[in-house]
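COURSE: Structural Biology Practicum
ASSIGNMENT: Worksheet 4, Part C
STUDENT ID: 0417
INSTRUCTIONS: Below are two proteins. For each, the amino acid sequence is given first, followed by its structure token string. Answer the questions at the end about the second protein only.

PROTEIN I
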Amino acid sequence: VLMMMLLSFTLLVLTFPVSIICALALLSTPGVRGEGDNPPTCPGSPAWKHAKCVMTVKFPGADCSTVQSEISQRLNDKSWIDPHNQGTYKQNNIDIDASSGSVSVVEGERLTGDGKYTDKFMFTFVDGDGGADGGASSCEVSACSESQCFSVLDFSTNFCNLRNLYCNTKDGCPVIEHDLEYEETYVNCSQNKKSDCIAQRISSSQ
């Protein structure tokens, strides 16, 4: 009898729509920033096993106010179109540094283009020094995106969630104001296929 009950439960989990499981998880146990073994630069997830992307992105020649401005504009400008299957972005929160008065953290979420899944992400900004020749300052960003339901493979979705908010015209991305140069270092982001982020080419004038 016990074996039959376990088999029935397993079949129920396997056949239950994943999108409904995700919705129930979000309602019952919302993720917490820095929860468990998560670094404080990640938004957290209610799912015990989930796909994620953690990386460091350096922007030589651009200060963090410039980088943050472009990211926030893409999050909030309804005319900007996500090149990764036209997902829907939303900015949820910003943290202001008390000493500088500048934005130090941007948190948001992205709903997939098919409207089924929501991922949460977080950018943490730290201004760097100018070069030895007195050149422009730089910005280093800790970027993290996490699926909010059980997942193992995400086909680079969490990577693209982040990258498409700062990628440049050379990548085929629509830019609002600042065409940023950047260097990515993958901390925990094994699924990082750049070509997956541009599912359809969109002109920056659209």
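PROTEIN II
(use this one for the questions)
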Amino acid sequence: GMGGMGGTPFGGMGGMGGGNAARPPAFDQLPQGARVMVRGLVNAANRNGELGRIVHYDQAKGRYQVQLEDDDLLSVRPENVLQLVSNVEIAGIESKPQLNGSKANIFNFDDKKKLYHVRVQKPPQSMAVKAHNVILPNGTKCRIFGLKSQPKHNGTWCLIKKHDPSAARYEVQIDAKGNCLRLKRENVLL
């Protein structure tokens, strides 16, 4: 079965994982060490925009522990971190077709306009692009937005399994059982 969520004392991790018996993250959780930017905080708004790394996910509180660059620790909800994904691919930009196929790194996200801020690697330049112009790598943890046919999935965290370039759709895992949906790129956001 797919136990493991209930915090049982019988984790079966003996002998694995160099002295650190942390279980691997769930399919929809960011791994330890993932680079993130803090966003959308209200009570600690002065921390928005700060960079850090995931220390761990606190299952009981439903929050990530994030170590900021100044070594402060913050406990934040998943929606308050932006994973800074490297090696995304630019696709489908009609105004600058020479950029399509370029690799880029995400460094910010404009929540109101739903635009990623990316730094294209070659030629080096920063730009804002729509979600459907960014192909996120397999294994990226994301959230589902804007589904009209199956709105119950909106807000669900998911894992990108693969991308189908001909259909411009991701196959995303939506639960621990491995169930998947095929979604347009604009419906899958960091």
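ANSWER KEY EXCERPT:
Q1: The chain is about 0% helix and 40% strand.
Q2: Residues 122 and 153 are 36 Å apart (CA to CA).
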